[in-house]
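writing this on my phone so excuse typos. first protein, seq and then structure
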Amino acid sequence: MARKFVTDRSSSEGSCGNSEFPFEVEIVESFHYGQVGEGIGYDILSKADLVAEDPVISFKTALWIWMTPPGCGTGVPSPHEIMTGKWTPSDIDLNAGRSPGYGAVTNIVTDGSICGRGWDPKDENAVRYYKRVSYIFGVDAGKNLDCNYQLRFGECLSKATNISSM
């Protein structure tokens, strides 16, 4: 799978924003570049191509994204916390359709940009790939594999309560 990196690196401070691409390693907007770069000890804010071109930096970036809870101190879990069972969804999460599984990880990694739009055949490729890799490794893929009916983490409860009508 090809990586796509969005390089809006206009600010070293960054901002919490939405992304618009699917499942590749997600570093979008200056907030992500600044935060990830600081976390891994490389200036990827001004040298974003390092993530795509240097395998060590690419690996460190992926591992940082996997282990670090995203976004502005929101209390959103890391993908690792979800997949290892360390995250227990709140009532707000459950009302928003978010429960442990690959779908919640997808929601975090894509900043919810592909979630909550109902079934979309384009999104099924990632789920099929995840199931295949799980099978190859001899592990159960689990439940809640997509985020088709999840609201993005951080959506308000008033929107979340309407998720059941989707």
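second protein below, same order as before
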Amino acid sequence: MLQEHAKLMALFQAAGEVVGRKKLQKIVYISKKFNAPFQERYNFHMFGPYSEELTLRVEELNSLGFVEEVREQKSGYYQYRYSLTPEGQTFLNQHQSAIVGNDTLFCRLNDNSSKFLELVSTILYFDDLTEAEVRDKVHTLKKKQNYSDEDFEEAYAFIDELTHLH
């Protein structure tokens, strides 16, 4: 029961607080691409890969009192912070086998900005294309982000780093 929820709680346990809904979406998507056993399905949306299932699962965890969602007013928008509650920790302690061996991956992803993870997740979403095709696609789909050649180089280097974490 709640096995998929426990996997998400294990992410919060390892990574600590995750700031931003978009960032959480990207952390789970990228983790999944690197074989973390998340089951959420993703589609491509305005900010890159997005899972409605993940959004619902986080809402359920919040309703159950296992994950705390704090909404903060920023200049012109709201930002959300997510963390595991003591009740969530207790539940997770009873279901330790949820996810093992992904703590470094979760922490490494959480150390980056949501804008950077948006680029990385978009590159991974189009992993069936050549690097040149991916760059063209990103420049077309994410024109407002104005990603530079250096951003792409950093993203590809980061993907390579994540590949060697396992």
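The chain has a mean pLDDT of 93. thats all i got for now
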